[in-house]
Write a structure and sequence with these properties.
The complex is a heterodimer of chains A (255) and B (337). Chain A has 255 residues and is an alpha/beta fold. Chain A is 38% helix and 23% strand. Chain A contains 10 helices and 10 strands. A 6-stranded mixed sheet of chain A has the order 6-7-8-3-9-10, with helices on both faces. A 4-stranded antiparallel sheet of chain A has the order 2-1-4-5, with helices on one face. Chain B has 337 residues and is mainly α. Helix content of chain B is 69%, strand content 1%. In chain B, strands 1-2 form a two-stranded antiparallel ribbon. The two termini of chain B are 16 Å apart. The chains are: A alpha/beta (255), B mainly alpha (337). At the A-B interface, helix 2, helix 3, helix 4 and helix 5 of A face helix 8, helix 9, helix 10 and helix 11 of B.
């Protein structure tokens, strides 16, 4: 059974076809890329997969279950986590709290337990606390646990956001332009981090990225879309030499 | 021992107030000011859940207070007092002593259910539009009650004094003072536990970035429902206490002006600060009483203070910090979970 199977997914906004007949099948364990010029519909695809939009047509099957009609938090609970193009951390909460709240779906206690501080509450809080510290330790963020994210440099904020997504224990991690706004040293760090996550966790990573250095060095398989339609797919070498991709990015010779 | 210094001081203080009231060392006026202080603390801290922690703008808080006040009054009057419409008391009035907190809790529960009226629209709307909905709910509740002739309509509803007297006949201690203090402590305790749990912090996540909250597995609709119901339920408890302290309720005492008073207290204290809400409720009550000799002019002075506050300290007295964060030394003397 494949991890995720997207079948002829189409999304329309009024008359605009943002995504048309998009197909994708991941078996689990891959590290794939999604590229395309600005406005090609990449983020829309991520919004559809994470349940933020409902596809106009077609289906998304995650781990054997149809995710249409599910709320984003339910999709996340099934094992799809994502980061955002522009960092969306909760800026007035400590890094630790950011990571703890991301485990909201498996707190294991109800609101009344939180009033009465029952055994279930203590167990739940202890568990998520230990998971959060483990995650901070693994992502090398331990020393910043009590800082506010807004006081951290941009590269670290990105790392915190990835850690927050990882703490939902995802099977599929969607990274929406993780290298956007990073300097070249941070980009190197990001490449190492993503590769490390992919090697050390049982996880499939699907990333949107504009920086070819990142995509070409990380991804095993790349899909290129333009105006919502898939124009090319293949290994990094195939994509690099594909005339349609070059045309989509740079235009053709006839002016 | 040192750890609990403030807790013990608070307990002793409350005991002293009750004893002073019992032996007539403070007059009824001072007693009522203290009771209103408690009610205002409940109102401001419960509104702080929605306006401060969750970042929505509810300006119909008095509606829930109204529901709580009427429901608990009707319950106690029907059960324990002679009333023109409801007739003779169903239970012997002596039992009011035992039943009183339950009646107030029933008022709170019903107003928590009425809170769904605001919570459900909040799934799709937020900000200014939700504020308009909350004002509409406030008007709906008031007009609804004004048109219910059986509970007095716009003339108001009374008879709660009989119940309070019946309680005093059994054991002559200042019952309402005790229930108000207990209600206040209960409210603070529940809110404190809620907002410091990871579950409750979900509402702060909604405040700071709702989309990120939803994507990071926070069930935002459920959290909004919980927050609105908790907030309105506690306001209902405040209403129940208010009705029994005054002994008379009128729909117009819960109009938009009362809601505004709640808002003023929240913004005075600081959004998302529980100790700020408590502090501002105490200050606001005292201010209202201190300015009483000015009569109608006080409604010029108090808004003026608000204007100055918004100009020079828009985040309120404590901002979004707790008292313990501003004075870290206090933490050594206080354990409060």
């Amino acid at each position: 059974m494949s991890l995720i199977n997207i079948d002829e997914m189409t999304q329309r906004f009024g008359g605009l076809q943002a995504v048309s007949k998009f197909d994708m099948e991941l078996q689990g364990g891959e590290l794939v890329g999604l590229i395309g010029p600005n406005g090609a519909g990449k983020t829309t695809i991520f919004n559809l997969v994470s349940g933020f939009y409902q596809p106009s047509e077609g289906s998304i099957t995650f781990a054997g279950k149809d995710t249409r009609g599910l709320k984003p938090h339910q999709v996340t609970a099934m094992g799809v986590a994502r980061t955002f193009q522009n960092i969306r951390l909760w800026h007035d909460m400590s890094v630790l709290d950011n990571i703890r709240i991301a485990q909201h779906y498996r707190l294991g206690y109800s609101v009344f337990d939180s009033f009465l501080r029952t055994k279930r509450y203590r167990k739940g809080e202890e568990r998520i606390d230990s998971i959060a510290w483990e995650m901070l330790e693994a992502m090398d963020l331990k020393e910043f646990a009590h800082e506010l994210p807004s006081n951290l440099p941009y590269g670290l904020q990105r790392r915190v956001e990835i850690a927050r997504a990882m703490s939902t224990k995802p099977k599929l991690l969607l990274l929406d332009e993780p290298a956007a706004g990073l300097n070249s040293a941070d980009v190197e760090g990001l490449i190492t981090l993503v590769r490390w996550i992919h090697d050390n966790f049982d996880i499939t990573i699907w990333m949107i990225e504009h920086q070819m250095k990142v995509v070409m060095s990380l991804c095993q398989y790349i899909k290129c879309i333009d105006f919502g339609a898939t124009i090319a797919e293949g290994t990094p070498e195939q994509i690099q030499n594909d005339p349609t991709v070059i045309k989509a990015y740079l235009g053709d010779d006839n002016i | 021992m040192q750890k609990y210094a403030i807790n013990i001081a608070f307990f002793v203080g409350c005991l002293l107030i009750v004893l002073a009231a019992q032996f007539g060392m403070v007059d009824l006026y001072v007693q009522s000011v203290i009771m209103f202080m408690g009610i205002n603390i409940i109102l401001s801290s419960s509104l702080n859940i929605v306006n401060g922690y969750m970042g929505e703008f509810s300006c119909g808080h008095a509606a829930f207070m109204c529901v709580g006040a009427y429901v608990s009054s009707v319950v106690t009057v029907v059960l324990f007092a002679q009333n023109k419409i409801f007739g003779a008391p169903i239970l012997p009035p002596d039992m009011a002593v035992l039943f009183m907190p339950l009646a107030i809790l029933i008022g709170g529960l019903v107003s928590a259910v009425v809170g769904i009226l605001v919570a459900v629209p909040s799934f799709k709307t937020r900000g200014d539009y939700l504020a308009i909905i909350t004002i509409a709910v406030n008007y709906m509740v008031i007009s609804g009650i004004e048109n219910l002739e059986i509970i007095g309509g716009s003339r108001g509803f009374m008879g709660m004094k009989q119940v309070v007297y019946a309680m005093s006949d059994v054991v002559n201690i200042p019952w309402m003072m005790i229930w108000t203090i207990l209600g206040t402590v209960f409210t603070i305790w529940i809110i404190r536990r809620f907002v410091s749990s990871t579950y409750g912090k979900g509402i702060s996540a909604i405040c700071q970035d709702e989309i990120a909250a939803e994507i990071m597995s926070v069930n935002t609709n459920k959290m909004k429902l919980v927050a609105f119901m908790l907030s309105s339920g506690l306001a209902g408890i405040a209403g129940g206490l208010f009705a029994h302290v005054i002994g008379y309720v009128n729909p117009q005492s819960f109009n938009i002006l009362k809601s505004t008073e709640c808002l003023v207290m929240v913004y005075l204290g600081g959004m998302g600060s529980l100790s700020g809400s408590v502090l501002s409720a105490v200050l606001f009550t005292l201010l209202l009483e201190a300015l009483r000799p000015l009569q109608i002019v006080k409604w010029v002075i108090i808004p003026l203070i608000l204007v100055l506050l918004m100009q020079f300290r828009p985040e309120g007295i404590l901002g979004n910090k707790e008292l313990g964060d501003v004075f870290p030394r206090l933490k050594r003397y206080c354990r409060f979970k």
